[in-house]
Design goal:
This protein is an alpha/beta fold. It has helices at residues 15-26, 33-42, 46-57, 63-75, 90-99, 112-120, 160-174, 176-183, 196-207; strands spanning 4-8, 29-32, 81-84, 104-109, 122-124, 131-133, 187-191. The protein has a five-stranded parallel beta sheet with strand order 2-3-1-4-7, sandwiched between helices. It has a two-stranded antiparallel ribbon with strand order 5-6. Strand 5 and strand 6 form a beta hairpin. The longest helix has 15 residues, at 160-174. It is globular. The structure holds adenosine monophosphate.
């Protein structure tokens, strides 16, 4: 079984949802840089204050901030790890390779129209970071998180104009990682469109 796994793919392609599910099933840690940054913003930490303007506009937070944050997180983490939304640049991937040996990179394949349709209907939990889709994965009670009962919200960066910028940034800065990990023989691709259960089964087969 692979123990250091990276989930790569455009925003809204299912990395968070499947990362949560897989980490529970395998007893792994899920490290989401997006979740860590949003929490830092809520807690008004120095990192949060620096990161806010980048996140709000759909740009990437500078590599030095992210790499320091990940270095600290890894040093406190034991056991298997699923990285969700990290690395997002070649610089971050090079830095990660100094600390850990990657077993598999799962690339979630999804077109822009599907990303936009999904993200505009996404609602997130501010407390436990669970994500819902208003149509395909709706909470049992309207606007309330099934897991922790908090009120769900729409992320500021899940609005159409910002999503388009996030997609442009993804193409420019993150897509080169597909080739980067492919050349290292670590990349497998999963179709991000379809039923959540079916995609999850595909992911499990790929990491066996
Ligand atoms: P996510 O929740 O993964 O969609 O991330 C939300 C936002 O946080 C991104 O649009 C970036 O602004 C920032 N972010 C998250 N992870 C990273 C990363 N690895 N590198 C740079 N910025 C990041």
């Amino acid at each position: 079984m692979k123990s250091i796994i990276i989930f790569l793919g455009p925003p809204g392609s299912g990395k968070g949802t499947h990362g949560d599910r897989l980490s529970k099933e395998l007893g792994y840690n899920k490290i989401s840089t997006g979740d860590i940054l949003r929490e830092s913003i809520r807690n008004k930490t120095t990192i949060g204050n620096k990161a806010k303007k980048f996140i709000d506009s759909g740009e990437l937070v500078p590599d030095d901030i992210i790499i320091n944050l990940i270095k600290e997180k890894i040093s406190k983490t034991k056991g298997g790890i699923i990285f969700d939304g990290f690395p997002r640049t070649v610089e971050q991937a090079d830095a990660l390779s100094q600390y850990l040996d990657i077993d598999t990179v799962i690339n979630f394949d999804m077109n822009d129209d599907e990303v936009i349709s999904r993200l505009t209907k996404r609602r997130s939990c501010p407390k436990c970071n669970a994500v819902y889709h208003l149509i395909y994965n709706a909470p049992l009670r309207s606007k309330i998180c099934d897991i922790c009962g908090s009120e769900l919200y729409q992320r500021d960066d899940d609005r159409e104009e910002t999503i388009r910028n996030r997609l442009a940034v993804y193409r420019d800065k993150t897509m080169p990682l597909i080739d980067y990990y492919n050349k290292k023989g670590l990349l497998v691709t999963v179709n991000g469109i379809g039923s959540i259960d079916k995609i999850f089964e595909n992911i499990k087969e790929l990491i066996q």
